[in-house]
Amino acid sequence: MAVGAAGTYRVFHDRKTIVDYAGEQLVPLQGPAAKLAESSEGTTVAPDEFLARLTATRLASPLTDSIYALHAARIRFIPFQFKPLLRFLRSDRPRLLIADEVGVGKTIEAGLILRELQARQRVENVIIVCPKALVSKWRAEMHRFDEDFSILGPEALRYCLRETQLDGVWPARYSRVIVHLELLRIPEYLFGTTGRNPRPGLLSLDPPPRFSLAIFDEAHHVRNAASNSHAVAQAVCENADAALLLSATPVQLGSNNLYVLLNLLRPDLFSEPSAFRAMAKPTSHVNAAMRHVRNGGQSGDWQHRALNELTAARATEWGRHAL
Q: What separation in angstroms does the CA of 43 have from each of 58, 70, 77, 263?
């Protein structure tokens, strides 16, 4: 990589060895190495082209260990509020269940994820679905991130559904919306109406509306797979590029409720309850090992106890394949 105008080149031999060389110290590849570089397995490029390709790659795929929207809100952050964002960025698909306790700032964590997405890519439509009592709170919280969300009432929701049916896309004037779950799950808005003046519903739209990001607060309200609330969440999550489920209600790890929520986010991973139970089995052992490590000073044999728990985790059905 050329540095400056004096013909100096910085060469990355490996992760630890980086050396600057003068131009006269470098010679073109010769012999077998040159033939390998010019084969179908790889090509050589000029330094300028290499830099251009490197820059394009970094722009197309921002680094997961860098936060680009760190100061994008009028908020004094607490370090742990970045943990969901980092987990979100490192996941193979942008979907996350945030199940923190009450009062730790889940709306702030969701706002951080929204602003980071906008710093990395084009974010067109964003929908926040929450209980009716939290609509105003969400709008005020998003203002702290300089995001202006419209609140959808019955008339505005009917307009959005009608325009989506006519144009095939969600209306641009409502690209940032908050709608309460109690409204969306009403059959008129979920399934549509028939008769002399038929109206489209969320599930009858073809094609369905696309969202860059969908956020469901108090997600435990959609845990019943036979309910209209679950149908709303499923329709929106299936057609969202990124999705967040937020909940402060304790969920037992082995319960069907947690499986239903994770299935909404990643049906490819959590396709059936039996697979979920197998994946969850090692978790209690891993958590126990973590407790032994954290409390190591209080127990002389904490290493032995932690090792026993990790061994038990590895012995589970899922652990034998994954650990």
A: 20, 38, 46, 44
